[in-house]
Each structure stands twice: as C-alpha cells, then as structure tokens.
C-alpha cells in the first residue's frame, strides 16, 4: 500500500507537469507577440520622433497614442461603446479663383498639347 506522501508526490508531479506544458505552449505563442509589439513600438517611436523633430515630444506622443489605444481596447473588452465622436464644426468658405484673361494657357497645358500632337503625328508616319 502506498503512503500518503507518495500519492501527494504523484499528484504534485502530475499538476506541475500539466501546468508546465500549458506554460510552455503559452510562452511559445506570447514571446513572438511581445517581440512584434516591441519592434512595432520602436518603429512608431522613431516615426513620431522624426515627425515632432524631438525624442521627448515623440515619446510624449507615443504615450498619448498608447493611452488612447489601451482605453479603446479596454472599452472593447468590457463591451462598452467608444466615446462619442467629436463634433466637427464645418465652416464653408467660398473659394474665389483669380481672374484669368481669355486666351491664357498654362505652360503645362501647352506641353500636354504638344505631346498629344507629336503622338498623333507619329501615328501617321
């Protein structure tokens, strides 16, 4: 007859084996995700630092965007709707085009016409 210590040892071995296998599988999956997130964060920080022309301002922008992303993810996990979109105040401005005298043709339009004429002439040769 086995003793209580041997039975507890066997149960401990079984539980630790199962947990070890689960942890190994989870870490195998998670380590690549962590590596990918670190590289994506590094690239995002470099882009923001170049955009704001300062490592400090790039870091602050990174924190701001990360905080907004985590908040959005947390609301998604909890099943709550996102914040209401900001109401954009549209201001309609009438665009006034400068006066162009009749017969004026830009250089670009003249070059386009010349290219079309050359293509037509080359097609007839």
TrEMBL record:
Keywords: Membrane, Transmembrane, Transmembrane helix
Domain of life, source organism: Bacteria
Membrane-crossing residue ranges in chain numbering: 7-30, 36-52, 99-122
Protein name per its UniProtKB record: Uncharacterized protein
